[in-house]
Specification:
about 325 residues; alpha+beta; Rossmann fold; 18 strands; disordered N terminus
């Protein structure tokens, strides 16, 4: 007989182990789930998550602070784990994927965030049962890793309004799409354009932007597709700079963002390449998969092709 038990307050994990007195040895760790209890809808579903992970004959570890998912993932790999599943949003996925890059371990995703941008891009969306079926099927493909000012990202990084928005959302007590939409509307009232100088493929462009995104995946999450042509395994990044909002362009930009037609919008700059350098006036926030960092006047974006492999459906997911 086996039991599901905690690994203690210090380690913050749950382990599927042999009951006391059992002659059966604990099997070697192969799959580990790492969950952020504060992400999206995870907290009220922890009992369900515990049952699902138990049925998967795996281990569940819970994060306790920012950066903890990266530490737990690295520890799991050292213990011989071959697959690490991030349970949460793009921030949790970022931390886990960062720890797995270059190790040979495979990334899995159980989406439980507010936007789930990378998961949606890869076609890992819907119920947790469906996501577990995808994990069990075992199909993988390469996943590039972007870097912005040295910080890794796997979905989208950016400057300007999106970084300010991410900063405010991370400070909010309420999570979820409704809370995000409210913060978005309030933040738009105070949005100011940023004068950027963009260096790409030997050319220089100067323009004011509302927000500037550099994408490895196609969307921020929630269906907002900032780079519809982006592919996560082609060794390229997509830069998309949106113009300052005016009374005549706000609705059009929003419609195009959610219908995958942002590239055709007036005054929108879209570029493709393996490296971009962006100059901005002074210091400002930089977001990478929703996590916010302080950035200086010059920010360099690069990509490392095929940094790890990720479990996903064999068919293309929605872009």
């Amino acid at each position: 007989m086996r039991r599901w038990s905690t690994g203690g307050a210090d380690t913050g994990f749950y382990r599927w182990q042999a009951a006391p007195g059992s002659s059966k040895a604990k099997p070697a760790l192969k799959t580990c789930f790492i969950a952020n209890p504060r992400s999206g809808h995870t907290a009220p579903r922890l009992p369900e998550l515990t049952r699902l992970v138990r049925d998967f004959r795996a281990e569940l570890r819970l994060t306790a602070h920012p950066g903890h998912a990266r530490e737990l993932a690295a520890a799991a790999v050292r213990e011989g784990c071959t697959t690490v599943v991030a349970v949460g949003g793009d921030g949790t996925v970022n931390e886990v994927a960062s720890a797995l890059a270059g190790t040979g371990a495979t990334l899995g995703i159980l989406p439980a965030g507010s936007g789930n941008g990378l998961a949606r891009h890869l076609g890992v969306h819907g119920s947790w049962r469906r996501a577990l079926d995808i994990l069990a099927a075992g199909h993988t493909r390469p996943l590039d890793a972007g870097r912005a000012d040295g910080h890794p990202f796997f979905a989208v990084a950016g400057l300007g309004f999106e970084a300010v928005l991410a900063e405010r959302f991370n400070r909010a007590r309420r999570r979820g799409i409704a809370a995000y939409a409210l913060i978005l509307l309030r933040s738009l009232r105070a949005a100011r354009p940023v004068a950027c100088r963009i260096h790409a493929a030997g050319q220089v462009r100067d323009l004011p932007v509302l927000t500037l995104a550099v994408a490895n995946a196609s969307q921020y999450g929630g269906g907002a597709r900032i780079a519809p042509r982006a592919r996560t395994e082609d060794g390229q990044l997509e830069l998309c700079a949106l113009p300052p909002l005016r009374p005549g362009n706000a609705l059009g930009l929003t419609w195009r963002l959610f219908t995958g037609r942002i590239e055709g919008a007036p005054d929108v700059l879209c570029l493709r390449g393996a490296e971009f350098t962006v100059e901005q006036p002074g210091h400002g926030p930089l977001q990478t998969d929703g996590e916010v960092h302080a950035a200086g006047p010059v920010v360099r974006f690069t990509v490392a092709p095929g940094s790890l492999r990720v479990l996903c459906p064999p068919e293309r997911g929605p872009r």
